Amino acid sequence: MNTENETIRLTCLGAGTFPLDNLQEKNGKDVNIIYQHVGGTAGNVMTILAWYGWHTLPAARLDNSEVGFFLKADMEAYGCDTHLVSNTSDGGTTILDIIHKTGRDGKPKTAYIAHSPRGGRFVNHRFWTLKQARELYDSLKKMPDVFFFDRCAPGNILLAQLFHKHGVLVYYEPNERVDRNFLRAVEVSDIVKFSNEKHADVSFTEGYTDKLFVQTLNQDGLRYRLRNGEWKNLAPVWNPNAKDGDGAGDWTSSTFIHVLGQHGLPRINDLMISVLEDCLMEAQRVASESISYIGAKGLIHH
User: Fold this and answer.
1) Bridge partners, 225 (sequence order)
2) How do the domains of the chain map onto residue ranges?
3) CATH node for 11-17+40-92+126-301
4) Burial of 158 (0-12, 13-18, 19+ CB in 10 A)
5) Mean pLDDT across 75-91
6) Which of 26, 93, 153, 209 is a Cys-bridge partner for 63, taking CB atoms 3.0 to 4.6 Å apart?
7) pLDDT tens track for 243-259
8) Whole-number Å distance between alpha carbons of 204 and 187
9) Which H helix or E strand runs over 45?
């Protein structure tokens, strides 16, 4: 399935969340750890695109704990270029325990517990400050083809603004509520993709004529709005062998970006509906296949 284009290797720089996905199966008191890999939206997209053959540059501020160094090594194992990944005492690392177990009713249940390697049950992400973001941008010898981000932190927004002015395709996958920074991030993005579970109200998309908005609808497929067009639905790709839905949205984004790249990475103003729908349907197909396996990137490891 790895379809690396051997003549043109595109680059994606990604900023946002890079936790450790610690996937466990629990049966009574017995706990079996079955998957430990970098996760988060940005982490999954960077590693999946690297697997597809892209040159990926995860821009992550991790701490200098054992887990922080493990995350950097794991990204390298997937093929990421980690020279923009730091491990410092002022960085942040989050462990996300994903616990699969059977409830008293006999039905499968999943619990999510976030904590820090140094103790404390809290999310410990660290994002680029404005100064660090500017230094990161200035340090680049070549602009990426795509900038991907999943949090509207000020440093990420600055990077999006700088890349957008330079003609880089900016892809935003929000994981936070609509507020001033959220809207600032949307303003400087070319593609904004989100789920109906996190953002059912799409009124924030109104008034834009230069963007692609994609809303995933879980088992109902997805819908999109291109430039000044109306929302249009695309049918889902059904998988009767679904086991684990974690990571399906990240496979959708990664595959969509990858297939757009195979079409020459057209600008939003030049993007034809036929090409767009082909890319989105392929993204849905791969995302549907991914849920046949345990773990967000189980498709890679099966």
Assistant:
1) 213
2) 11-17+40-92+126-301
3) 3.40.1190.20
4) buried
5) 97
6) 93
7) 888 899 999 999 999 99
8) 10
9) helix 41-52
